[in-house]
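User: I'm writing a tutorial on reading structure tokens. Could you give me a worked example: one chain, its sequence, then its tokens, then a sentence or two explaining what the tokens reveal?
Assistant: Sure. Here is the example chain.
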Amino acid sequence: MKPSWGARPGKLKVLYHGLLVLFIVVSLVFIGGTLYAVFFHTAPAENQFELAPVLITGSERIFGGLGRLRIPTTDNPPGIVIIFASFEYNPDDRAFTEELALRIGEFRNVIREYIGSFSVAELQQLSEDAVRLELLRRFNAILRLGRIEVLFFHDFMIVG
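And here are its predicted structure tokens:
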């Protein structure tokens, strides 16, 4: 019996063999990739937890993962404060390092809420050290597994 779409049995046989070859090739690629991944893939080291970005200067590790923040002041129209804060940490203290990574968003909110509660004039009257100490106090109030000893400002600009 002839197929209804007009193909001849010889053409169907060629199509069948072509699809069978394609299936075998795809299967071999899949199996080969799996075997390669199992036998030749190296797993990451157990203690390879790292906060990014990290600035390394000598033997010190400085966490700069809070990034550069642009915070509006209470003025109308608002001024802008550009701040980039960082601090030293001990990467060998795995529990504290993980806590720092989990609290990045909270640290950013602390900075936004504190800096954003001032006008440009009020911020200009505050010393940079006073701002740094208050932020450090608020950061350490959040932390449970360690403390930040020193907070650095790489950028602290008041525009407005």
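What the tokens reveal: Residues 54-159 form a domain with the Tetrahydropterin Synthase; Chain A fold (CATH 3.30.479). The beta strands are 54-57, 60-63, 68-72, 80-88, 151-159.
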